[in-house]
Write a structure and sequence with these properties.
3 helices; alpha+beta; 18% helix; single chain; 202 residues
Length: 202
């Protein structure tokens, strides 16, 4: 009597099953992708722009404009006005008995003013100042009016291309009159921005 024996079913090794390989491929892809993401996250951002430094403006040094010093008899042009000192003299009184007496000594500066502009100008004592070193001396307005009674030099209009002559009076000390560096500063009006210098020391 023969007996039928059934062969036991042999199990395939795990590495021979197809789904094992598919699963392995999926795991490898997932691991590699996750690693790349972590590397990107950890990588420092070197392209971050640094804040721009504010540029400090370079200050240019103001250029000092050289002032030409003229002498007696020479023309100094300030803006559209030409000044000439013809001579100087001194006095203790101007205008006679009813005029003005000096506290010190009157320095009389005989000047000519020419209008080379296109509009009329009005002469005034503010056109003139004395300078000696750091000191500045204003003209004596009242004494200057007495000294120009015959000409009406001050507060008179000068039309273009015309000139006028007159006397500017300064009440100063004898020491100042003798100062070898004494200058007459001329400018075109009280608020004139341009000035000129004429050496008038005796």
């Amino acid at each position: 009597m023969t007996t039928n024996q059934t062969n036991p079913k042999v199990k395939k090794p795990l590495y021979k099953k197809w789904w094992v390989w598919v699963l392995a491929v999926i795991v490898i892809i997932a691991v590699s992708t996750n690693g790349e993401d972590e590397a990107k996250t950890a990588e420092p951002n070197t392209s971050k722009e640094q804040p721009a430094k504010a540029e400090t403006p370079v200050k240019s040094k103001p250029v000092k404009k050289e002032v030409k010093v003229a002498g007696i008899g020479e023309v100094v042009k300030v803006g559209k006005v030409e000044f000439t000192v013809n001579s100087t003299s001194t006095a203790k009184n101007v205008g006679g008995e009813y005029g003005e007496n000096a506290q010190g000594t009157y320095l009389l500066v005989h000047v000519a003013v020419k209008n080379s502009g296109n509009e009329s100008i009005t002469t005034d004592t503010s056109f003139f100042r004395l300078k000696a070193g750091e000191k500045t001396y204003d003209a004596d307005g009242t004494a200057s009016i007495y000294a120009n009674e015959a000409t009406d030099f001050f507060l008179e209009q000068i039309n273009p291309d015309l000139s006028a002559t007159g006397v500017v009076v300064f009440d100063v000390s004898d020491e100042l009159i003798a100062n070898p560096e004494l200058m007459l500063q001329v400018q075109s009006g009280f608020f004139g921005t341009e000035t000129g210098l004429i050496k008038i020391s005796q």
